[in-house]
Protein 1
Amino acid sequence: MLNALARAARPCIATTAAALTISAHGDSNADNAKQPYRVLVVGAGLGGCLCAKELRRRFGDAAELHVWERATYNAGRFGGVAVAGELRVDLGAQVLSVVDPEDPRALPGHGIALDALKGAWSEVQALEARGLVEPVADNQLAATEERLLWPELWRQYVSVGSFSDVCAALLTDARPDAVYFGRRVDSLKRDAGRAFVVTAAQRDGDGARSISATFDAVVLAVPAPDALAVDGVADALPPELADLVGRTRYDARTATAVFFCDDDGEASRILDRVFKSRLERDGSGGLELAHRRSSTGPVVAVVAHSSATTSIAPPLTADDVLNAIAGADAAALRPLVVSSKSVRWDCAQMVTPLEALMPQNPVEKEPCVCDDMATLVLAGDYCTQSSFLGAYASSRAAAQAVHRGYRLRCG
Ligand SMILES: Cc1cc2nc3c(=O)[nH]c(=O)nc-3n(C[C@H](O)[C@H](O)[C@H](O)COP(=O)(O)OP(=O)(O)OC[C@H]3O[C@@H](n4cnc5c(N)ncnc54)[C@H](O)[C@@H]3O)c2cc1C
């Protein structure tokens, strides 16, 4: 606490020597006293994009907001896509799941407060109004535990384009001062002024160059193993929290998109029969199948996921997917295959999130993990659950914590 108060005596001027600054809001303040609070969000998945938006909402122009993403595109489990012709399909999440806060069964808990339930719902209504997602009824989808236990409490939405469009829109809303793709954060270390010196590898042609910059606060919106792989993170957290993060567990899934030529509508006719006009069905061999079509293009697709209970090593081929469809329909589809793409998600969905781990579970207070000064904050579905709601609740808590740290340091 003493350190925090000492820091508050010279507010936010210690980080002027950033190695790298690109600013859309203007970064060359003559008046150091008004220098923005420099915040880095690591990861441009759903959580990172939501967190950046929430940070901008809370800080306005008082924060200089940077986003660094390891992949060369807007990625994450809400962003992996496969493309054929004009059809883009998601390889990660297939439906966005959120709870209607007006439903009497919608109660806060598991680290998710009522205002997070409401905020996530409003965010999704806004995405629908922008034409980025549309609702889909439970009876169109494969049965999951939530859908069986609480019919229609969870509301499901599919992407109109792809979920990476949703992430891109959220990131645009955040008005970040700088976004870098192909930049992997490798280490962070506190400097004498208690800011973080962050080091990353920036992809550059066939190689990579090292980048270093200083930030007042860092949010790691990455899966738990990726957060702990960043050198210095575990040491910067209270040991019991670092230990809890290390004990969270995900399942692993393999996903494959198979595209079919639909010039004469034959593939669509077969797939309508296979799916009985639903969007999802169970396939044989532990695969879950989703039907994706384009309003314009001559291509349709089936996306296959290994289920939560079946771990399938890659590659999951087009033949495997056809075998899961089986019978005469699979034989008729075989010559229509155009291409396929397979992805292995080592961290797919939560099996053991923080909220299920005791003791010293922090998430009943707020579903994120932070150091004593709220300057290093970890957020993600591993704090609560793998859903849009879980990512929203954790990102919002992370932004709130960063803002608390800012008030502590900057008055
Ligand atoms: C196969 C599958 C099916 C799913 N189905 C559903 C579903 O139907 N409904 C639903 O709501 N949810 C579903 N989910 C879960 C949902 O996708 C996740 O809960 C959510 O996307 C998590 O978002 P995140 O931002 O926390 O993490 P991520 O999406 O993992 O994003 C983390 C980002 O950080 C980047 N990164 C990691 N390390 C570094 C580093 N050192 N430096 C820089 N960048 C880094 C990664 O490249 C990535 O882009 C599914 C997930 C999978 C994999």
Protein 2
Amino acid sequence: MDVLSKEGAVNRSIGIASVVVAVLLAGSVAAQAKGKGKALPVEKATLTFAPEVPPPIARRKPALVKATFDSAVKRMEITQGVTYEFWTFNGRVPGPMIRARVGDTLEIHVTNTDASGMPHNVDFHAVTGPGGGAKVTTVVQGEERVAWFKLLHPGLFVYHCAAPPVMDHIANGMYGLILVEPEKGLPKVDREYYVFQSDFYTKDAAEDTTHLEFSHEHGAAEHPRFVVFNGKAGSLVGDGALKAKTGEKVRLFFGNGGPNLISSFHVIGEIFDNVYREADLVSPPAHSVQTTLVPPGGATVVDFGVEVPGDYTLVDHAIFRIEKGAVGFLNVEGEPRHDIYVSQDEAATCEGCLVHP
Ligand SMILES: [Cu+2]
């Protein structure tokens, strides 16, 4: 099997463990895909980084969907001019987004290139079984583990590292989203984006510092220095802003890694046409919603049409958090709609305004 062909990085016991896992899944799609019985189509997952979303699933039958997650520590900006040692999946925060379909089997390869020697793993909230897969995907530097998980429930799910201490692995950036489409897929929209909120905790430092370090103590006290979208203050500002045109329907796949804060997710100037509350893609969505709650380890899917051109602001409506980075923009281009939004005077911007550019 391919797990054994990896250039000596995988030891024999891991190979045997993988065989055992595959045998235990005998009769399952994973075993079938390995030549026992009717083969399932095998496809490599299209992995995207926020704010990009993998394309909708066109097929209407189950498949074996393969993905590889590598864990590593990487120094990147957390806000302009200030770096932080993030713990990452595939070198980014949040990690890649996976898109699959209910009934698919996820074949996940988990590797570790973290020179610190820390173990890492993946707990997929989309997975049914102990630890969401964490228990069978724990790896240290140079190892690879493979596991097969049948995706029994549709929904938008968070995944995260759950190696001990779990709060440190989440607080440092090891999370992301997996979308499991319902059998018939999701209603078509014009644009889809991946937005992920999280809070970061750093040691006290001088105002002019250019590097910040993690503080477990501030995490335990739930005292964040940053609350951000897509891993960095300002990731959805300026050139990073999301884009749309008037008349289009926009969908946001929104997750919250926490580790501590519940998001009161709101888009200033918009009302959500559809909210798939708690990312439940089975029940009918709620309509005409202003703000929706997204807990740590939870997600939501919101759809809205954009009618009026201009800048729309993504916030956590626990509004002090915009000073900690929880603000982003959606720029909408198009012709004015004076039948919907009109004023006597031109728009004016207040000095220092963080939400109305
Ligand atoms: Cu980890």
